[in-house]
Write a structure and sequence with these properties.
Structural class: mainly beta
Oligomer: single chain
CATH architecture of the largest domain: Beta Barrel
Number of helices: 5
Shape: globular
Number of strands: 26
Length: 330
Amino acid sequence: MNCFHRKHVSVCLVFGAGLILNGGAIGRAQTGASEPAAEPRSAPSKDQLLQLGKATFAPGTPAELEVKEAWTGHLLVRPVVNGHPAGWFIFDTGAGVGCVTSSSVAELGLERIGAIEAAGGGNQANAPVHRAGELVLGPLHCAGHPLMAVDLAFLEQHLGEKVSGIIGFGVLSRCVAVIDLHRAAISLHDPAEYKLPRGEWTALDLSQRAPVITAVFEGHEDRFLLDTGDHGHVVFDEPAVRKWKLLKGRELRDSKLGGVGGFIAAKSGRIARLEVAGLTLEDVPASFALEAKGAHAQTNRAGRLGAGVLRRFVLVVDYGRQRMALLSRE
């Protein structure tokens, strides 16, 4: 989430969008005009559309990825899709499904397999799902990899880079990812071989294909999404703002939250204290959504912890074992 100011209004952009998957898949089988009538076939389910193929690690390939840091602080990586260099993708732990920009579908040779409903930063909509025969990122080779097609052209004016896609759950669930937002460094490791160098693991919930942990803020305990695609600090979704009465007695200014799906009204301010993964932060910048739209309408969590918080540490996520760690800097 990149924040800038227009007069007295703070505008915050959540580019990775915290893409959350809703409901089931949509679509229907089609038959040729000359074919006899047949019993209609049900569309593949969401789980079928997003099913992951086999993943392997190439021996001898460095774990460190080529990374570019956008001026907003977002980290960009370059996968190879179906043998084609695919351009720069946002590396986003908040994305429940990997994405590719709609304009790249044909040139990457992607096969459409259906559609799903997904919620972005400001709205929700149906989006086509394609399958790549192979996606390669550093040492990781993913076969039969699903990618949701989304128009990402609007991101170029904000990041100063053409964004061709988003790396999300599909890749992160096949590896241990070590993410250093401060140094703009990412490495992918074989879960069977990775050992945490220091610190302790904390449990993750991946029930919506995105990492959620429990944290305590100003004495309240709730759940938060870990979101490297959000360059802010702490963002509270509208249901949590109402539940905990977070606007009361707080110095605030007008703000907006936006991303894939559009903008919503918000307020920005600070929270006195945040405790997460055994660590305590004081006087933390925060945004408070005023509209229950898209990804900001979630009722099963308070909001998200963005890069502003996560960049103070080295973030390690191990989706396969449902755990994470925040490592202090040596």
